[in-house]
Amino acid sequence: MRLGDTVGQPDEDRGKPLDGVRILALEQMQALPYATQLLGRLGADVVKIEPPGSGDAGRLAQPSVTAADGTAVGATFLRNNLNKRSVVVDLKQPRGRDLVVRLAGGFDVFAESFKPGGLDRLGLGYESLAAAHPALVYASVTGFGHGDGSPYRDWGAYAPVVEAMSGLYETKRRGDDPPVVAPAGALADMGTALFAAVGILAALRHRDRTGRGQHLDLAMYDATIAMTDLVANSWSMGLPAGAPPPLIMHGFRARDGWFVLQVGREAEFARLAALVDRPGWLTDPRLATRAGWLAEIETEIRPAVERWSAARTKLDACRELAAAGLVAGPCFSDAELVADPHVAARHMLVEIPRADGVHQPVLIPGDPIKLSAVAQGPDRAVPALGEHTDAVLRAELGLDDDAIAALRADGVVA
């Protein structure tokens, strides 16, 4: 799917679900920007306030590509800022802060990812903006929340930090080995973003019913605990940290690589035994329980499964397992993922053309939300830093060219 394409246009154009919803975002990196991008793909108008100089820190991430204006744009920014407009305002200046307060009155949502207290000191905290705009939904994404109860309230947070604190890394660490950091990319960022999007939509629904805005206080640590729910739950039920659950949930080798198979029910185990021609498993006392399957995974089950799969590709093995009523999937490489026909059929990669002479376009994930009455796309390219400053100030605040020029000359906007 190319940038700007529209996919699945319904017979009657009903627009997007969030048409008319407006979001003013003071955001950095990924946890909040992915949330606002997701809402933007659903129709929300997202205006991003960036600081002068380098803008959102995601613009400086590596790897990067060279944009049409000659500036480098980091991969983190490219993945999280489609369909947004960029306005550069210097919040260190009182006139810059006043511009943001005035702008907020024309928006439904004010979304920010500053450390707790940071915007309060600038007069842009929840209490200040709620007093000026009572119907405003104020959404905060921080590492550990705005309340006074957390001992980590003033800590900064990146995804691996809260992932480590959630217990996820320790459950997978073995012996005296160091933890494997970020085993699934920015899991905590993406998970937090999804909770943020849900929370914003819930707060908007509440405002529609009551006329009142409120403060959404979302902590990355909280969101990650929710996603790694097995850590605390398993501990409470007596399962040692990192102990595998009593079921088959393992990787097996095929002719050209690996596939993952999960068998957690007795009926599934019977199907597996039939498929790999091991009917004796069903009467073997060692395999009479799920704990027994786990105990014999290396001595009995893996050898039998891998003798069967050795003559098959990982994809063919999974096809046969699926046909037998089992659940399995191949371990794809990055190149295999990009070439996967499912990905193409579901439009799950968007091509962003490059301006630096490299033929290969940048690929970012498409929108996983498929609505039968709503077309997907068209996605607009990520904005250049401050690309929409003048247009937004004119349209939202009625400033003329002279007023904007004066603000720019004083460094208030850029």
What is the CATH H-level superfamily of the largest domain? Crotonobetainyl-coa:carnitine coa-transferase, domain 1
- What would the average pLDDT be, to the nearest integer? 95
Low-confidence stretches: none
CATH architecture of the largest domain: 3-Layer(aba) Sandwich
- What's the SSE pattern? EHEEEHEHEHEHHHEHHEEHHHHEHHEEHH
Helical region count? 17
- How is the main sheet built? 6 strands, parallel
Helix content: 25-40%
Derived from helix and strand composition plus strand pairing, the structural class reads alpha/beta
The CATH topology of the largest domain, please? Rossmann fold
Q: Radius of gyration in whole Å, from Cα?
A: 25 Å
Name the shape in a single word: elongated
Give an account of the 3D structure.
This protein has 414 residues and is α/β, with parallel strands linked by helices. The chain has two domains: 22-230 and 346-409, Rossmann fold (3-Layer(aba) Sandwich); 248-331, formyl-coa transferase, domain 3. It is built from 17 helices and 13 strands. It has helices at 31-41, 75-80, 94-104, 126-132, 159-165, 168-172, 187-210, 220-227, 229-236, 266-275, 290-295, 297-309, 314-323, 334-339, 341-345, 389-397, 401-409; strands at residues 22-26, 45-50, 64-66, 72-74, 84-88, 109-112, 137-142, 215-219, 248-254, 257-263, 327-330, 349-352, 362-365. The strands form four sheets. Strands 5-2-1-6-7-8 form a six-stranded parallel beta sheet, sandwiched between helices. Strands 9-10-11 form a three-stranded antiparallel beta sheet. Strands 3-4 form a two-stranded antiparallel ribbon. Helix 4 (126-132) links the parallel strand 6 (109-112) and strand 7 (137-142).
